[in-house]
# Entry
Amino acid sequence: MFTNNRSTPFERIEYVLILSVLFLMVVITAQPILHLVAVSFSDPAEVPGMSGLEVLPRGLSTDVWSLLINNPNVQRGFVNALLITVPGTVIAVLGTTLMAWALAQKRLPGRRPILLLVIVTVVFDPGIIPEFFVMKNIGLLNSYWSVILFRAVFAWYLIILIRLFEEVPEELLEAAELDGANPFQTLWYVIVPVAKSSIAMITLFYLVLNWNEFFRAMIYLNDPDKWPLQVVLRQFVVEGDKVGMVGLANVSANTDVNQISIRALKAGMITLTIAPLVLIYPFILKYFTKGTMSGAVKG
# Structure
């Protein structure tokens, strides 16, 4: 057990080493993000001379952000990303929770074969081609639902919740049954309050998974007007089309736009893409910490 009084030299050295390693990990993780923010807010004339280690902007300019925020492709991509992420996360969390609660019941008929099929999906991935033909045959191509439903229940997250639900004391379930609660009432009033930290953790995982999805969106959505923000980011970063990102009208009407480097535009676009997750994460952090530790310590 760790205590506030570290009496021996070895404990003090160990404490300093742990803090040093954690601080180094924070620096390594945060530095690239801070560098992107600094480049996007720097004066356009100063951007070419910035090194990859600088985390403070040179000068101050909001031209990059003004162009990105007012860009119709970016605005449409952001809305499309929300239309995919919000329903996708809600459906995935509900589906995973309900399926985990059912499979956690040891008296469920066919429980073992179903669990075996779940594990098979983890070991053997069907691949993108059979998945594409399935989406085509059920008529979901060029539809948001093709991106939302392709992984409505992720096997790893399902297994995590099954193991958690199996550890719920039988006394709680028996008490709910004696009070006349049906399985759905037991899940909502007994299981969910007990497992809310782990469900919040799963919600965060699904949120990140759906927000960062670009590969299947790029394959299944043929209409560029339906592309989420991540596909817009990929098209810009890979192709490097500054005129396409800024807009021909802006280039013709504003000579200052020509001075903005593509490096600054890429930095701003990447920052804009990851910003929603960075802003949401602190609100789920306390649940995430409890959820990752659930089952590790039993009181």
